[in-house]
Amino acid sequence: MRIKRRGTLLTGLLTTLALALTAPATAARAADQPGILAKPAFLAPFECDSVWTYSTYPGHGNVLDFVKAQGASAGEPVLASAAGTATRHNQPGGGQYIRITHPDGWTTEYMHLATYEVADGAQVAQGTVIGTVGSTGNTTGPHLHYEQELNGVHQDIELEGKVLSPYPPEYGEEFITSTNGCDGDPGDPDPPVLKDTALAYDGPATVSNGSPAPLSAKLTEKEGGAPVADREVTLTLGTDQTCKAKTDAAGKASCTIPAVAQPLSDSATVPLKATFAGDEAYKPSEATAELKLQYVTARSYGLSASVPVLVLPIVIAPTPDTGEVRTADAKTVAPACTQNISAVVLTADAPCADVATTTGPSTSTAKSTLARLSLGLPGLPVIEATGITATSTSTCTASTGTTDLKLTIAGTPVTVPDAPNHTIDLGAGAKIVVNEQTRTATGLTVNALHISGLGGADVVVASSTSGAHNCA
User: Fold this and answer.
1) pTM exceeds 0.85, yes or no
2) Is the pLDDT assigned to residue 469 strictly greater than 90?
3) Which of 206, 228, 283, 323 to pair with 451, CA 20 to 30 A apart?
4) Which residues does residue 292 pair with via DSSP β-bridges, in sequence order?
């Protein structure tokens, strides 16, 4: 595979040209011999009328190296010596090369190519340009390494009706003039048969706004399921977030959307499309999926009450109230605090409520506060609390809640343990639950105080609810 130049004598060139033009055709010789498969009429793998010099060197084997007799070899078209099926290959020694399988067990190889000019598996006619001369692989300069084999065994190379062995050891001693394509256009080869492909999304089923989304899809041949490598696949999340990647040896293409930014629909899903555009060897294909979009919910309010007083029942709707918050984005909902609430047996100072959500990861935090509460239900001791705060926080990994307050009953301070759902029995069927926490599959509700009494009295003080959804 070496390159070694020596001076080209004009006399030697002219003599060889004359011999090449007058050499008798011998391509059919093998077919006339019993037991020998018909040999294709191989032509020089170069453009019509171009002149090339060939040689070999010790240990090189029954193969030839070609360089152009005049001008540079690099980039020159390489033509099919005979019709057949062309396949692409690459290996350290030969670099990029084409192997053409011909009828009756014959093959030819064209090594060190700079470029491929036909698809892998293409049907080519004699004279079809299959590549260009280069120096890929183990070479010292641009040239074409050429082989002929019969049933996997190297044969003496025969081109233009002439057996070229014994091979000269140096360039410039023997020349060959190509007649490949000299009869005009070799004709359009049969169009390559494009293989059907199948694309399947195999990335995560859930994405979260503000967080990376590692997407992936697998490209295979539809028939047989063989992986299709080194092809570009485009993955589109929603309508406007796209990443691209080439398939690996297993046919898998993986890329990442740096930060998801998708609207929250009623179904809380995001469309995903994987697309392979197809090429000269494979048909296009696509795959679609519906990914779940993580989102959070929350609500908080300062106070609600229903007290069946005989003369005038007291009903206080949740005040102030953020309402139900459902979002996949970062936002804050904080209605104005209420200055105070006064209703016969109940007074509440400065109740407030707010909800804050974040992304990357999705988090919701609901918080409600009151400066002071006083409640005197008929037949019960007066209940007072100050510095009241209830907080509920949810992510896809956990939901947590806390309550802070100072509590007195009938003027006596009550020590409240740092644990949820501490119940204080007031007698006569009435009770107080401090730091009431109710868990669901998706979140947590925290009530700082939940007071119930005779006749169906029900008072909730500082309520906060948070939740996280589509977590799996």
Assistant:
1) no
2) yes
3) 323
4) 206, 269
d(CA 172, CA 169) in angstroms, rounded, equals 10
Q: Is 266 exposed, middle or buried (0-12, 13-18, 19+ CB in 10 A)?
A: exposed
Rounded CA gap, 443 and 399, in Å? 6
At 47-103, the pLDDT tens digits run: 999 999 999 998 888 999 999 998 899 999 999 999 999 999 999 888 999 999 999
Say if residue 178's pLDDT is above 60. yes
Q: Report the DSSP beta bridge partners of residue 315.
A: 306
Query: What are the residues whose beta carbons fall under 8 Å from the beta carbon of 417, sequence distance 6 or more?
Result: none
| Rounded-to-integer distance, Cα 193 and Cα 85, Å | 11
Distance CA(34)–CA(39), nearest Å, equals 13
**Alpha carbons 16 and 13: distance in angstroms, whole number:** 5
Answer whether 222's CB lies under 8 Å from 286's CB. no
CA angle 183, 189, 81 (to 5 degrees): 60
Give the 3-state secondary structure of residue 351: coil
First-to-final CA distance of the chain: 58
Print burial letters for 171-197: b (CB count within 10 Å at least 16), e (below 16).
Answer: bbbbbbbbbbbeeeebeebeebeebeb
3-state secondary structure 93-122: CCEEEEEEECHHHEEEEEECEEEECCCCCE
Distances in Å between the Cα of 17 and the Cα atoms of 8, 47, 158, 192 are: 13, 15, 17, 37
What phi-psi label fits residue 183: left (phi over 0), alpha (psi between -120 and 50 degrees) or beta?
Answer: alpha
Tell me the pLDDT tens digit for each residue of 328-354.
Answer: 999 999 999 999 999 888 999 999 999
Instruction: Tell me the three state secondary structure of residue 420.
Output: coil
Question: How many angstroms separate the Cα of 277 from the Cα of each of 41, 106, 284?
Answer: 39, 35, 5
Q: What tokens were used for 190?
A: 């049969």
AA identity, residue 294: Q
Give the confidence band of 378 by pLDDT, cuts at 50, 70, 90: confident
Question: How far is residue 163's CA from residue 26's CA, in Å, rounded to a whole number?
Answer: 8
Q: Are 237 and 207 in contact (CB under 8 A)?
A: yes
Residue found under tokens 């690996």: 248
Q: Is the peptide bond before 192 cis (omega within 30 degrees of 0)?
A: no
Quick one: pLDDT at residue 280?
Answer: 85
Token pair 């692989």 is found at 137
> Torsion over CA of 378, 381, 385 and 390, rounded to 10 degrees?
-70
Whether 255 contacts 215, CB under 8 Å? yes
Half-sphere exposure of 92 (CA within 13 A, CB side): 0
Q: Rounded to whole angstroms, how far apart are CA atoms 331 and 322?
A: 12
Q: How far is CA 412 from the centre of its chain?
A: 65
Q: pLDDT band at 185, cuts 50/70/90?
A: low
Whether the Cβ atoms of residue 262 and residue 238 lie closer than 8 Å to each other = yes
